[in-house]
Design goal:
The chain is of the alpha/beta class. The protein has six helices and twelve strands. It has two domains: 12-116 and 232-237, ATPase, nucleotide binding domain (Nucleotidyltransferase, domain 5, 2-Layer Sandwich), CATH 3.30.420.40; 123-228, Nucleotidyltransferase, domain 5, CATH 3.30.420.40.
C-alpha cells in the first residue's frame, strides 16, 4: 500500500517502540490504517538519544501528519518514562520522551505504555478485558468497559524465586527452556490470571504469540499489531485523559 500523497487533516503518526523493532504507520483520526507499517531495528542498549534517532529515521517516510502517538515498552506516567528494563537499564528514569519527540517534530505527542496503546485499539469495551503482549518481555494492559485502568508493571512481579514474568515468559524464558516448556509456562500464567482477575476476555499478541501450540479458551483471542493499531487514534480521541500537554515550536 503506497503512502498517500494527500493526507486528510488530523491524521496521526502512530509509533510502537519494541525491544526488537520500532514500527510506525499513518492513521486517520478514526483509526483507519493509511499506510503500511514501516520498521527499523531498535538500537541495542537503547538510550533515549538512540531511540529518538530511530524514530527520526523511521518518520522520514511519513508526511503531513498533525499528531503523534507513541506506545513505549515501560512504565509511563503523564508522558514521562519512569522505567524501560528491556531497552537500557538506568538510562530511562524521568525521561520526558513525549516532550523530546514533540520538540523535534514540532507537533503534539501522546505517550503511553505500548500494551496500553494496543489495548485501547483491541478491547471491545465489554467488562474486564486484559491484553498480554508476548515479545522481548511480557506486556499487560487492563480495561474495564473500554476504560483503560492505571498501568501496572505486572511483568516485574516474581513468578519463581529467581524470575519475574519478563524472565519467565519473555524472550529470555523462551530461549532458556524452548517452545514446549514455554507453552507450559504460558498455560500456568493464564491460569493465574483466570484466578486472580476473573477476566471476561483475554487478548494475546506480540511476536511470540505465534509460538502458542495449545487450544485456548473461548474467551481468549489471538491478536496482531494491526488489530491494536487503532489505539494510536483512540489515544487522541480520549481528550486529556492519557497524556501530559506537550509544548512545541512551530515548524
Amino acid at each position: 500500500m503506497p503512502i498517500q500523497s494527500k493526507i486528510p487533516k488530523g491524521n496521526i503518526l502512530s509509533i510502537d517502540i519494541g525491544g526488537t523493532n520500532i514500527k510506525a504507520c499513518l492513521l486517520s483520526p478514526n483509526g483507519k490504517l493509511l499506510t503500511e507499517f514501516k520498521k527499523t531495528p531498535t538500537p541495542k542498549k537503547s538510550s533515549p538519544e538512540a531511540v529518538l534517532e530511530g524514530i527520526t529515521t523511521l518518520a522520514a517516510d511519513f508526511k503531513d501528519f498533525e499528531k503523534i502517538s507513541i506506545g513505549f515498552p515501560g512504565y509511563v506516567k503523564h508522558g514521562i518514562v519512569q522505567t524501560a528494563p528491556n531497552l537500557a537499564e538506568n538510562k530511562w528514569a524521568n525521561v520526558d520522551l513525549a516532550q523530546q519527540v514533540s520538540n523535534h517534530f514540532g507537533k503534539p505527542v501522546r505517550l503511553i505504555n505500548d500494551a496500553d496503546q494496543q489495548g485501547l485499539g483491541i478491547a471491545e469495551g465489554k467488562g474486564l478485558e486484559i491484553i498480554f503482549t508476548l515479545g522481548t518481555g511480557f506486556g499487560t494492559a487492563i480495561l474495564y468497559d473500554g476504560e483503560l485502568l492505571p498501568h501496572l508493571e505486572l511483568s516485574h512481579l516474581p513468578v519463581t524465586k529467581k524470575e519475574d514474568y519478563d524472565d519467565f515468559i519473555g524472550d529470555r524464558g523462551f530461549e532458556k527452556v524452548g517452545k514446549k516448556k514455554w507453552n507450559k509456562r504460558l498455560k500456568y500464567i493464564i491460569e493465574i490470571y483466570k484466578t486472580v482477575f476473573n477476566y471476561d476476555r483475554l487478548y494475546i499478541g506480540g511476536g511470540n504469540s505465534n509460538e502458542i501450540n495449545f487450544t485456548l479458551d473461548q474467551n481468549i483471542t489471538l491478536v496482531s499489531n494491526k488489530d491494536g493499531i487503532k489505539g494510536g487514534a483512540k489515544l487522541w480521541a480520549a481528550k486529556e485523559k492519557y497524556h501530559i500537554h506537550t509544548t512545541y515550536p512551530d515548524k
